Amino acid sequence: MKCRRILLPASMLLLIVLQCGALLPLSAATFPQRHYTVEDGLPHSNVLRVFQDRRGFIWFGTQYGVARFDGKRFEKFDDYEPFRSRQFLGFLDLPDGRLLINTYDFNLHSFRDGVIEQLRPRYGEIPEGIVQMCRGADAGVWLNAAGSLYRLRNDSIRHIPLDDEFHLEGIVPRALFHIELASDGTLFVCTSLGLYAIRGGRRFRPFADLIGKEPVFVLREDREGTLWLGMSGYAYRIGADREIHRLETPFTQGKNLKVMMPDSLGNVWVSLEGGYLGLIEDGTTIRNLTGTIAPPNAIVNDFLADREGNIWLGTYNDGAYCVLTTQNVNYTREDGLVNTYVQSFAEDRSGRLWAGTFNGLHYFENGRFYEYQLPGGKLLPNESSFNLIESLAVDSSGRIQVHASSYRRVILESDPVNGLRPTELTYRSFLSKFLYVDQGGKVFTPEWRGLRWLRDADLVHFDSIPDLASRRVFDVERQPGGRLWIATDSGLYSLDTTEIQHYSLSDGLPGNEIKDLCIDERNRIWIASNSGAACFEDGRWRSLTPRDGLSHQFCTAVADDRLGNIWIGTISGLNRLNDNGISSYTVKRGLVSDEVKTLFVDSRDNLWVGTSKGISRIALAALPTTVSAGPPVYIVRAGSDDSTWRDARRVQTSFDRSSVSIEYAGLAHSYPEGIEFQYQLAPADADWRSTRDWKRNYDNLSPGSYRFMLRARMEDGAWSAQPAHLAIEVTPPFWMRWWFLSAGLGLLLGIVYGAARYRTNVLRRRELEKMSVQNTILQLEQRALNSSVNPHFLFNALNSIQYFFNKRDALFHANVFLSKFGKLIRLILKDGKRQSIFLEEELLRLRLYLELEKMRLEEYLEWSIRLAPDVETDTISLPVMIIQPYVENAIWHGISPLKAPGRVDIHISMRDESQLQILICDNGIGMDRSAAIKSKHQVAHDSQGMQLTRQRIDLHKRAGQGRITVEVEEADPGHPTRPGTKVSICISV
């Protein structure tokens, strides 16, 4: 693409090494890492074991205490009494889902679903000093304890002797250092007296002719089946074909190699006594990493390679270290760079990488960078000027073209005697960022204004596009087929023989200042501009901006690889684009700096990222090629007031403690900051809700059943395939529980039934009482009828008839009186069985009665009946014989005692729409004199008529037949002799 490689002879490479001086002590690149200490949550700084369980949690066994790590939080198990102040030396996943944890003092514990239990075998005793556990081929567990081998299987523990040489010369016991179960089922046992093996119940000494009885401190098997043995001062590599290679450790002669661990990239991490740390990268040499991760004097107790490729180191009194995904490696000044501002890369034909920085040209060898120097000094001696190597390229002759910003151009070409011989060409033109060598070997040099190409030893202006003379050119690329593409500060030009095309904002570019361009394997044109990136395919441009997932709109570089990825550098991170979308790489994910300056893909499928703070190398083969599945998610802890549940799947709390807090985790140890969660509490939440928090609080949940669901994803990945679930049950108060509601419902039904029965009985009693009242009314009405035809009335009526018959001239009046009397008696007898009567009929009978009394009293009685116009006598009904007793009382007790003419007036009107008012007024002796006369001359029938009438009114109301009120008062209280009486009767109609 931007550069071509040349093959340099081996002798030339040797001369280069000699010119550069003696090699410095081996040093490693800077690995992106994190350091965890007691301040972060570790129980103790002496980390003895690091382990990843089947779910993905990282466990730390320390000098005093154990903790579980989810990528963000350490969870100590201080609440479990047997775990306090213990040395934790081993972890092991069991087939039944339990995690086996051992301490040094006779204790094995199992952990599952948040519950810790002490393991108590039925047969045998747990030995003291268990320092290691490993799975057996038959689901048993092998224990390395106190220099002896034990086996735990089927709830029993027994000692397994290795051979008869258990004691050396009967005095010194054999030290058992390490046990390892190989993929073929062989158990290897590393001891101070050599290596032992157990397979199929048979004990033997493997590689006895090679090792003999030399101490073997550790044995590990990598994923290719290769065995790695740690010895004293060296290591053995035994391949699957049993080919044996010995690896010396010259920087640690005589030191015991006690800890080894193969990683996912084929490397082997080693730790030696005294704090030495090394890495076997190519299977042949051990590279010294001392001081590059932990401090130089740090002693590594244990290694762990997790499932994401991270390397964990448990150290002695310096906490734990995590080397993030080892496909990312960073290089800074400590790795040989003279300056960390990196602007250009190239690869020569021997495969050596070159890097251009401020005031320096570097080449990469043995895991570090070295500055290239001329025999007489530095390649770019003027360090005070702005002397940045802007461009590197390799031409068709294998020469390395070096262009600096200080108007300097140096060509390095192969010389059999002097190695790389420099040829310098100085010209007065400020070089732009890139230099390009096309397929024909033509070297193009972009400039501040215009474009040049190298012809022999001269730089000639490229004048095929006249507009370029006034444009700043950033990059040049030639498409298969011959079309030339030129990136400028005013858009993109393309040239095919004589056809010139210019693309700008109006054609779909995100910006006019094109910083970089590349042509991928599918012949697509990719550009990086100051306003985004874009791709030209099928005759149109497709732009990419931060809205599409770019980390920033200011793009600085673009490159493609053979795996189908497009890499876009910005001032705020690196972006990877493929069919799965856009993913970002920043400092948080291991990049040395977010400010990307240049990108380069070498022949070994490494992506080199030049930044303002150094170089990052990404092993492309180690990157996932598909959309990464969401990280596994788990409910770590759930709490409600004073109750806490660890690893809960279901929690239950009461209505008065209904505030629930939920802590959860997404296990992505490489980049926990990039996890996005979605949660849903059904049925309260209708849809998923997003958050970056690792905890949720729900306050005052209503009684009922809930289901909390959780899933997660990385910034560039899919959601978790299996969401985590937590069932939450908020129990209601006792008066809302089913048994209470059932009892209450039964009680309510009983009350309703009892009330219905009581109501029925009441209604029945009322009906009987009503019938009794009606009978009583009838009886009283009959008695009233009898009382109305009282002896006085009959006696006086008969005397009047006799008087009329004795008087010769009164015979007519006697006949009339007798006729009216008979008619009245007939009406009384006719209506005696009725409870109510129309007003019209009552008035007829009342008039007959008054006419008889008028004939009897003659001039001593005057009467009148007045009806208001709104009174409908033919529709209004009232109790029978309710008016006559009061009229009779007015005549007999008010008018008759006067012995003088008197008057009775009856006025009937509607008091309102529902009440009929009857006023009976007389001008008799009044209430007081009448009462005095009654008390002096008491007559039985005089009081019985009114008493019976009052009882009839009371019974009438009790029977629910309407309301009747009677008010009696003196009509004219100021009259001395004739105050009279006024009776007001109101009847509901």
Report on the structure:
- This protein is elongated.
- The model is unreliable at 1-28, 165-172 and 426-434 (pLDDT under 50).
- The longest helix is centred in the last third of the chain and has 51 residues, at 738-788.
- By secondary structure, the chain is an alpha+beta fold.
- Strand 56 (573-578) and strand 57 form a beta hairpin.
- It contains 9 helices and 76 strands.
- A 5-stranded mixed sheet has the order 63-69-68-65-66, with no helix packed on it. Strands 71-73-74-76-75 form a 5-stranded mixed sheet.
- Helix 4 (791-806) packs antiparallel against helix 5 and helix 5 packs antiparallel against helix 6 (839-857).
Describe the structure concisely.
With 989 residues, the chain is α+β, with helices and mostly antiparallel strands.
Order the strands across the largest sheet as they lie in space.
63-69-68-65-66
Main sheet: strands, sense, barrel: 5 strands, mixed
Mean pLDDT: 81
Strand content: 35-45%
**Through-space gap between termini:** 113 Å
How many beta strands in the DSSP annotation?
Answer: 76
Helix content: 10-25%
Rg from Cα: 58 Å
Descriptive keywords:
elongated; five-stranded mixed β-sheet; 989 residues; alpha+beta
Secondary-structure blueprint:
Layout: H1 10-20, E1 33-36, E2 47-52, E3 58-62, E4 65-69, E5 74-76, E6 88-93, E7 99-103, E8 107-112, E9 115-118, E10 130-135, E11 141-145, E12 148-153, E13 156-160, E14 167-168, E15 172-173, E16 176-181, E17 187-191, E18 194-199, E19 202-204, H2 208-211, E20 218-221, E21 227-230, E22 234-238, E23 244-248, E24 257-262, E25 268-272, E26 276-280, E27 286-288, E28 300-305, E29 311-315, E30 320-323, E31 328-331, E32 342-347, E33 353-357, E34 360-365, E35 368-371, E36 373-374, E37 377-378, E38 389-394, E39 400-404, E40 408-415, E41 419-426, E42 436-437, E43 443-446, E44 451-455, E45 458-461, E46 473-478, E47 484-488, E48 491-496, E49 499-503, E50 514-519, E51 525-529, E52 532-537, E53 540-544, E54 555-560, E55 566-570, E56 573-578, E57 581-585, E58 596-601, E59 606-611, E60 614-619, E61 633-640, E62 643-646, E63 650-654, E64 660-666, E65 676-682, E66 689-691, E67 695-698, E68 704-713, E69 724-731, H3 738-788, H4 791-806, H5 811-831, E70 836-838, H6 839-857, E71 861-867, E72 877-879, H7 884-895, E73 902-912, ...
Helix pairs in contact: 3-9, 4-5, 5-6
